[in-house]
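Notes from the 1:1 (GR / supervisor)

We went over the backlog. Supervisor wanted to see one worked example end to end before approving the batch request, so GR pasted a single chain during the call. The sequence is below; no edits were made to it. Supervisor asked that the structure be written out right there so they could see what the output format looks like.
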Amino acid sequence: MNGKEVSKGFWILFFVFPGLAVVFVFILMPLFVSLFNSFFNWQQLLRSDFIGFDNFKTLFFSYPYNERFFNALRNNVKWFLTTMIIQNSLGMLFGYMLSRRIPGQEFFKRVFFIPVLFSIVAVSFLWGLYLRPNGLINEFLKFAGLGNLVHAWLGEEKLATFSIIAVSIWRWVGFPSLVFLAAIDGVPVDCIEAAYLDGVGEWKMFWRIVFPLILSSVTVIAVLTIIGSLNVFEQIFTMTGPEGGPNYSTDTLGTMFYRTAFGGVDSGNPAIGIGSAVGTIIYIATFLISIVSIMATKSREVEL
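Structure output shown during the call:
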C-alpha cells in the first residue's frame, strides 16, 4: 500500500468517524445499555440480580403493566395508521399539485414547510391552549354557528388521541410534500410528455408512470413515519401530560417508558428494568417494521 492510498484512507476515516461516533454514542450504545438493563432486577437506581426475561414477562402478563403496555401500543398503531394514510396522502397530493407549477407555487412551498421548522414543544403547548374547552377552536366553531361541534378535544377519551394526531399532521405534512415534490420534479419530462401524447389521463399517468419512479422517496417517508410513530413522546407529554390523559387514552410507548423508568406505573418508584424492556421493544419494533417496509417497496422500484 503506497502513501497515496494511506493518505486517502486517513481522510475517508477522518470525515466518516464523527458520524459513526454520533451513531454509536446516541443510538447503538443506549440500545445495548437498555437491553443489558432489561435483564436485571433493580432496587430503585441500583442494579441487583440477573433475572433473564422476567421484566418482559412482567410487561406482557402482569397487571397493571400489561394493560398499560397494550393500551399504549394500540395508540402507537393508531398514530402510525392515521399519519401514514392521511399525512402522507396529503403530502403526495400537495407535492403533485406544486409540481404542476400552480400560481403562487413558491408561496405555498413556504406555507406548507414553515410549521416543520417550529419547536415541537412550542407547537404542542400552543395547540393545547387552542384545544381547551374555552380555547380558540371552540370559540371559532361557536362564531361560525357550529356550536354542536364544540368538544373538550383533549378531555374526551375518543377524541384526544386523534386531536393530537391532527396537530402532528398539521406540523409535519410540509416535509413529505417537499420530498415528493423533489422526487416528482426528478421524473424525466420525456416520460410525462410521451404519456400525454398517447392520451393517458392525469390519474393514470400518475399511478402508472410517476408513482413507480418515485417509490424510493415513498419508502423513505414510510420508514420515517414508522420511526416517528413508534417514538411519539413530546406532543403527548406537553398536551396531555406524562400519564397520557384522560385515563391513559393518549398514552404511548414513549410516555409509558418515561413513567416506568423514572416514576413507576403502580408504585411511583422507578422500575428501570421494566422501563428498559419497553425501550428495547421500541427499538426492535422500529427496526423490524422498517426493514419489512424497505423490502416490500424495494422490489417495486423502477429505475430508468
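Supervisor's comment: The domain at 53-298 is CATH 1.10.3720.10 (MetI-like fold).
Batch request approved.
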